[in-house]
Structures are given as structure tokens and as C-alpha cells.
Amino acid sequence: MSAERAEALSKQFKAIADPNRLRLVSLISSSAENEACVCDLTEPLDLGQPTVSHHLKILVDAGILHREKRGVWAYFSIVPGALDVLAGVLTEPK
Amino acid sequence: MSAERAEALSKQFKAIADPNRLRLVSLISSSAENEACVCDLTEPLDLGQPTVSHHLKILVDAGILHREKRGVWAYFSIVPGALDVLAGVLTEPK
DNA sequence: GAGCTATATCGACGGTTGTCAATGTATGGG
DNA sequence: CCCATACATTGACAACCGTCGATATAGCTC
Predict the structure, then answer these.
(1) For the domain that residue B58 is a member of, what is the CATH number?
(2) What is the pLDDT of residues B18-63, one digit of tens each?
(3) How far apart are CA B41 and CA B53, in angstroms?
(4) Which residue is nearest to nucleotide D25 (CA to C1')?
(5) Terminal C-alpha separation, chain A
(6) Could you give the number of structural domains in chain A?
């Protein structure tokens, strides 16, 4: 694996290598419409609103979450296939 | 996903969420006998020997690598199935 | 417009991380 | 025993990270 590819992949792995961000991804992907807004995510994680926004931004910047603003709310959803790419790296044939 | 499970999983994801450690795992799993010693890994990563030992220890502590000392050399190999567990979390993040 | 609400951003704080130089520990050869 | 080799450990350092409180921005309602 090249140093450049390792650097790029590590950015995405770092994004999900946090317990709260793992739970955010889990909460969003298991929600009704496969999306959630910040106000839905603050309470189950027991974190402040700025902290949740911060974590969501990291996941969006890493290309794992998609952010869509509708009215006052910001809805976050999993980018299709994003997690599959990372899973593929871990199951890669030697 | 419970906070406890997220915490445990994040420890393993943190272990591979580093470019040099990703390359270590890649180098080991693609080597001839699926194992490598520290002296084989120092040069391709362009890192000092203490730094490589440090990264390998993190991967061993996370349960991703197995360490076996034979004579003066320490051989590291991938723990069977360890990466598949992480890949499974990403493909079905309930 | 004023006021409220949802979200983002900023600044600061303690804690963690990656790296290196120096040193320690074990193993094998002579 | 002496010494070289392979690896681990320690201590230090700057950089980064997660969290919070305060504040800013944007959209809705009246």
C-alpha cells in the first residue's frame, strides 16, 4: 500500500475511530428514513449540541456522511458505499 | 449501538486509523509467510526502530496483530478474523 | 421588524498521539 | 566472559483531539 493511499484511508478511519462518532453512524443508519438531524442525536449521546455538530462535521469532511439542510434543520445521512470501501480495505485479499 | 460496544470498537479502529499502521498491516498480510519481523518493516516505512515497535505494540494490544518471539527476532502476524470483525461492523452498522 | 429555534463556529482547556534519542533487555556467536 | 544484534522501554516534545461555554448565523412565526 502506498503512503499516499494509506494517508487518505487513515483520514476516513480516524473519522469513525471515535466511540461517539461510531454511535452517530449507527444511529443514523438505523433510523427510520436513514437520516437524522442534530436535535435527534444530542440526547442519546448525552453530549452538547456544539460537540455533536463538531463530530458530524468530521464525518462529513471525511466523506462518510452527507449533509442536507431543509429549512432550519440539517439532515445527515450515510454516503452510499462509503463504509463499504473501508470494509473492503479490511477484507482485501492478501 | 451501546456506549460500551462503541468504546471497545473504537479502540480497534483507532489502532488502524494511522497511515503507518495501515501500511504495517498491509505489509505483514502481503508478505510471504504472512508474518514479518521489525527489521523487515523499518526500511519500507522510513521510520526509526523504536517508532515501528511502538506502532506494532498498539496493534498487538488492540488484538489485531499476534507477536511470536523466535530467537532474537519477533515475528508479527495478523490475528485470524480480527479485521473481518471490524469490516462486519461497517457493512451492517445496526 | 422582534423573537424564537436549530445549527454552526469560535476560543480555551486538559488529555492524547506520533516521533525521536537514549537507554534497557534479551539472545546468540566467538 | 565479551560483544554484536534485534527488539522493547523510557522520557521528552510538539501537534492534534474531544469537550465545553459563549457566540454567531440562518430560517421560521408572529
Answers:
(1) 1.10.10.10
(2) 999 999 999 999 998 999 999 999 999 999 999 999 999 999 999 9
(3) 10
(4) A72
(5) 11
(6) 1
